[in-house]
Design brief:
The chain has 14 helices and twelve strands. By secondary structure, it is α/β, with parallel strands linked by helices.
Amino acid sequence: MNGEKRPFVVMAKPVGSRCNMRCAYCYYLEKGKYSTHEKQSRMSFALLERLIRQTVEASPGPVVSFVWHGGEPTLAGLDFYARAVELQKKYLPKGWQAWNNLQTNGLLLNKKWCAFLAANRFDVGVSIDGSEAVHNANRRDLAGNGTWERTRRAIRELQAAGIEPDLLCTVNSATVRDPAGVYRALESLGCGWAQFIPIVVRLPEGGFSAESVSPEEYGRFLCDVFDLWVRNGLGKMDVQLFAETARILAGGKPSVCWMAEECGRAPVVEEDGGVYACDHFVDPAHRLGTLGGARLDALLESPSQDAFGRAKRDGIPAECGACPWYRFCGGGCPKDRFADAKDDAPAHYYLCGGLRALFSHAVPVLERIMGLSRQGLSPEKIMEAFRSETP
């Protein structure tokens, strides 16, 4: 460590991988086997206090970021988050503030939950896979029932409390079949932000799970959604990938880890205090230590975590060096890089073809949109211009 504090986001898992749903494509349910507890429970208040204190102490400030994730983080109960807010106020220096983001399936949210989240200025991300039929194809509760209506109701409760939730939609083998229906269903919810998260699950025996999306399907889906967004969504609902691409075009750096050249600034803290390199690498090989055995800042700046972050940049295949779109994707998420066992070539980013298709389609349009915006045209006028053209 050189003594300089660098920004990071801690992803806290207060109930580990426990969840009240059984989504067909979930990659996290099995992670409980790595807990040092015989049975995963709720993070203790003592560990919660250690987490908050050490996160504040490791942060450069003045905003300290906490993402509450799972499993399903609302299973920790409202009292857990009330205690978290109390502890943040206790340890934050004067003039600093905490940014709390709750990522939830929404099933437990009610008026009391939403009032608390609004009063304490939580940002909330709600997982919903577009339309009812597509959502219910994969996102079911413990009894096997679809959850779309309950999720939609939770979004309405949040909005009634003054919270504009982010919509987290997976791109899987069901959603790719209906990009227009998925996009319009999300748009109809009246929220200002949506993320599209690709499902890629490599099977031990080779190949991919039935829910996984292929690169070609991913590219077609994103291009179709982009065209709909350009003609209907400007100024109404931002899409993370499109917004990040525009940010890079404008000379900025990506704020999303998988698009950056290096990663490793989003450690996971599990309910037993185990600290891992990343949400997608919760396994013994990427366990950095525990909050009880080492300080969070030491783990975050450890040689192993530093090497993990640099490996994203250092492990890219040669083709990335000549790719005009590398500055947008940063070589993709390491979890989706797969090597050919037959040779020693670097792992290839599985979704490369899909993103190439999107960027080649969308970047010229985004450049035009940005130019029209600089001329003073409103989002509605820009959309009118595109709607008047042949898609």
